Amino acid sequence: MSEAQTEKKDLGQAILKEIIPPPEEEAHKKSFWKSISIPALAILTGLLIGALMIAATSSTVWAAFGESIWRGFGTAFKEIGTAYQALFTGALGDPVRIVRALGSGDAKEIRSALNPFLESLVQSTPYIFTGLAVAVGFRSGLFNIGVEGQLFIGAAAATYVGYSITGLPAFIHMPLALLAGALGGAFWAFIPGYLKAKTGGHEVINTIMMNWIAFRLTEWLLSGPMSRPGSGGMPLSPLIQKSAEIPQFFQAPIRFHLGFIIALAVAWLIHWLLFKTTWGLNLRTVGTNPRAAKYAGLSTTKSIITAMLISGALAGTAGAVQILAVNRSMALGLSSGYGFDSIALALIGNNTPLGVILASLLFGTLRNGATRMMVVSAIPIDIVDVIQAIILMFVAAPAIIRAIYHLKKPKKEETTIFVSGWGGK
Amino acid sequence: MNKRVITLLSLLIVVGMLLAACGTTATEAPAAKIKVCQITDTGGIDDKSFNATAWKGIEDAITQLGIEGKYLESKEVADYEKNLNAFVEEKCDLIVTVGFLIGDATKATAEANPDIKFSIVDYAYDPAVPNIVGQVFNTDEAAFLAGYLAAGVTKTGKVGTFGGLPIPTVTIFMDGFAKGVAKYNEVKGTNVEVLGWDPANPDSGLFSMSFDDQQKGRELAVSLMDEGADIIMPVAGPVGLGAAAAIKERGNAYLIGVDSDWFLTSPEYADITLTSVMKLMDATTMQVIKSVIDGTFQGGVSVGTLANNGVALAPLHNLESLASAELLAEIEQLKADIIAGTLSVK
Fold first, then answer.
1. Considering the domain boundaries, does residue B109 fall inside one?
2. Does B70 contact chain A (CB < 8 Å)?
3. Peptide bond just before B166 cis, omega within 30 deg
4. Residue B304: inside a domain, yes or no?
5. Per residue in A307-327, is it b (16+ CB within 10 Å) or e — as a string?
6. Residue B328: which CATH number?
7. Within this chain, do residues B48 and B90 fall inside the same structural domain, yes or no?
8. In terms of domains, do B67 and B204 share one?
9. Which residues of A touch B82 (CB under 8 A)?
10. Which of B57, B90, B123 is the last residue of a domain?
């Protein structure tokens, strides 16, 4: 990579550049609108292309076009409108309904009216944890593709502590189960981290392999040692104890739970660790320029291992929170691919905790709204995957967005994260 | 240029929303017909298995009874409750869920919403929940016919079976199969042997201990064929495909499919599929829908039988020449006897 070349020429400067705290924070504040213009336009474009696809795959629209062009356009707009209206009200709530519900004072109706927005937060929660896990990896120059497997191991550990221990008060049991999840994930990430640091074994390959081991291991655990009595061999764990449950704040159907607030707190903690501590600076230095860091006397070994431990702990917590707050027992269909979606998510969020939170809210909102969209207009939930993919493509290739919307090229180099180790070490 | 693009975009969105607003107010017509909503497990609506078959029942009801049908797919466990809530919100009259894993969520939602009716495929609650009908299947009735057929077709005098796991929904197939063979021996005075399962000694049964390890299915089929079996019924989901591959390679044995008609669902093995023991959740789902329409819905279990077409023996398709006309006639008679209740397969 070009990094390696510049570093040979200009080693001293490179080290200095890395050691002096980067003025990144201030730059971010100044160009706030600039920094979100690309993601925002990418989202808009994604939704527009999604709209075209909704219209193009609808048989009613085709039938209307058969009658006349104007009728065709009218029907297309109507279909898209219905779909996106459902996506919107399904994700954030129907304002009219909320006002009416609040006016009526009926508790159940109020809960139902407010649920869409709160459910979006519930859907975003695992994304925040896994997104942070990937971002921490990226920041320290590691491509952790094993988040999904770490999530499974974390979930299994939390489930085990959650159901097997009885008689503990909730304020001990719940944090204990959560901790077990974090440790499980950390342990699973430690293995490829250690291999990378000590033997140079590539973390991309090793984390992918660890995923498969994790899936099969949990399958065995759930149909063997951890299976629910009477499940007849189906891979399903017993229900966790009441004392291990992460509390949900409201009655059904609202599932909003403490886990979301924990996720925000953890994001703040990661932000503080990465950007406000010397330790974080060292980590990022190793991430952007491992050789320079080495010359500056930083231990890459230590940095790689701690980064993987933290990344894995975050992934494990994602799984633990899903079990303890939402699912309440573990089955193999635990994750819809959070560990993989989060790679995209961390990129959209530019690998900053705040960016990850915003991107998670976007993903969670889209997914939640998609359910309502499917109910109302029978548009498959998969369209949301397509919209997400388009958004990601545009975020990853900002040049396209700039070309479409005639934006100026930023003067400074865009903040890109180099993931070292694709070729050499 | 930039501004022009943005103006155009906002115009499009505004027009779209206006049209949408008109559209939604216009379609709010009074709906008297019942609304049936299905939630799939993580297999999805087109899993060629339980989810798809149950949805076929709803589709049949849409065309035949004029009901309204909707479905939601679950991508993960957390979606079960979310989708159930979405359908409660949608005021569905009957919510159909599929499979054991969705059992907890269905029960919780049913108890929180006693005025909505639920039905769950291939699962039953003990004790019963007043507003849930569990759809279970007397698979042994159809398997009995398959056993009788196999005993009449075998040339080596040995037929085989194996299961995925020793659980009731699996062993019921093997029980019926073995008893069908025994019936044939009793009627014809033959001595056809069943390898892999003996209802009197369940501990000696042959199991792959897996529902997805096709290699294991292959090994079990090979060992059964080595022992002389020339007709094999694997009751282990996709593991059976491994067995099918082994049988096809060997070339002198036949397969009996389970759950769906394998002649149709696995056409690559059509030329070795003698028949299939089918569990037809479309028929039982339809039955539950009918009970909601005519007001006879009652929580508990709905049992799929030969009589109500909830279970059935698939046609022999291309392999009909293997069975004599008398044998097929005898099987028809046995079926009629089971339906009439004069013959018990238990």
1. yes
2. yes
3. no
4. no
5. bbbbbbbbbbbbbbbbbbbbb
6. 3.40.50.2300
7. yes
8. no
9. 119, 123, 255, 368, 371
10. B123
> Between chains, do A371 and B72 touch, taking CB under 8 Å as contact?
yes
Is the pLDDT confidence value at A107 over 70? yes
Is-contact B151 B159, C-beta < 8 A? yes
Q: If you write DSSP's letter for every residue of A260-328 in order, what string do you get?
A: HHHHHHHHHHHHHHHHHSHHHHHHHHHHH-HHHHHHTT--HHHHHHHHHHHHHHHHHHHHHHIIIIIIS
List, for residues B166-191, the tens digit of each pLDDT value: 878 889 999 999 999 999 999 999 99
**Cα A336 from chain centroid (whole Å):** 11
Residues A306-325 have a mean pLDDT of 96
A299, two tokens: 């231990």
> How far, in Å, CA of A362 to CA of A345, rounded?
9
Whether the CB-CB separation of A418 and A3 falls below 8 Å is answered with: yes
pLDDT of A9 > 50? The answer is: no
Kindly indicate the confidence band of residue B4, based on its pLDDT and cuts at 50, 70 and 90.
low
User: Tell me, what's the ipTM?
Assistant: 0.82
A 10 A CB-CB count for A410 gives 15
Is B187 an 8 Å CB contact of chain A?
no
Please give the torsion angle defined by the CA atoms of residues A232, A237, A238 and A243, in that order, rounded to the nearest 10 degrees. Answer: 180
Write down the pTM of the prediction: 0.81
**pLDDT tens digits, B105-137:** 999 999 999 999 999 998 888 888 999 999 999
Structural contact between residues A177 and A324, judged by C-beta atoms closer than 8 angstroms: yes
- The distance from CA A383 to its chain's CA centroid, rounded to whole angstroms, is 19
pLDDT 10s digits, A333-370: 899 889 998 998 898 888 899 999 999 999 999 999 98
**A217 reaches B (C-beta below 8 A):** no
φ and ψ of B37, to 5 deg: -125, 130
Q: Check whether residue B166 and residue B114 sit in a common domain.
A: no
Q: Considering only residues A326 and B1, tell me which one the structure prediction assigns the higher pLDDT.
A: A326
Q: How high is the pLDDT of residue B214?
A: 86
pLDDT at B29 over 60: no
d(CA A102, CA B214): 57
B210 in any annotated domain: yes
Confidence of residue A61 (pLDDT cuts 50, 70, 90): confident
Task: Kindly tell me the burial class for residue B21, based on how many C-beta atoms sit within 10 Å of its own C-beta (0-12, 13-18, 19 or more).
Answer: middle
- Is the sign of the CA dihedral A331, B311, B208, B218 positive or negative? negative
CA distance B132 to B96: 9
Distance CA A331, CA A227 (A): 9
Do B261 and B174 lie in one domain? The reply is yes
Cβ <8 Å between A375 and B72? yes
- Chain A CB contacts of B97 below 8 Å: none
**Rounded Cα–Cα distance for residues B238 and B249 (Å):** 18
Report the domain count for chain B.
2
Tell me which chain A residue has its CA closest to the CA of residue B38.
Answer: A375
Its domain, for residue B245, covers 139-279+311-340
Dihedral (C-alpha) B110, B116, B117, B122: value to the nearest 10 degrees? Answer: -30
Give the minimum alpha-carbon distance from B106 to chain A in angstroms, rounded to a whole number.
Answer: 13
Residue A332 contacts residue A216 (beta carbons within 8 Å): no
